[in-house]
Write a structure and sequence with these properties.
- There is one protein chain.
- The chain has about 120 residues and is mainly α.
- Helices cover about 60% and strands about 5% of the residues.
- It has a two-stranded antiparallel sheet with strand order 1-2.
- Helix 2 packs antiparallel against helix 5 and helix 3 runs antiparallel to helix 4.
- The radius of gyration is 18 Å and the shape is elongated.
């Protein structure tokens, strides 16, 4: 177990206390924008990957998200857009959701950059 903590400690993510345990180092608020930008890229990649499998896959993802993660109205709206087969609306709603998080954290000096969806192939 100790070896698993060495790399995060070396990168400054963990503080190790011999014979007492480990503590996750708090992420500075200034890193919030970068973290949410990375989250957006990962989630949009996931959306686009599902969309590439067709409308039925998008609707199935929406149904699954509705059953599991409709925690906030924003989550519900994203899941509803997917269930309706509207991946483009889901992408926009995701951007709005993450921008709202930035606003609540006081990091909303500029909106997150929403990458363009991949071009449809014929």
């Amino acid at each position: 177990m100790r070896e698993a903590f060495l790399r995060p400690q070396a990168e400054g993510f963990l503080r190790l206390y011999p014979k007492r345990g480990a503590q996750v180092v708090p992420v500075p608020l200034s890193a919030g924008r970068d973290i949410l930008q990375a989250r957006m890229l990962l989630e949009l990649f996931a959306f686009d990957s599902v969309a590439g499998r067709g409308d039925e896959a998008v609707r199935a993802l929406g149904a699954e998200l509705t059953a599991v993660t409709a925690v906030t109205e924003q989550h519900h709206a994203i899941a509803h857009a997917l269930t309706s087969g509207d991946g483009a609306a889901a992408r926009i709603l995701l951007s709005e959701h993450l921008t709202a998080i930035l606003r609540r954290l006081g990091l909303h000096d500029r909106p997150l950059t929403l990458p363009a969806p991949p071009a449809a192939t014929a």
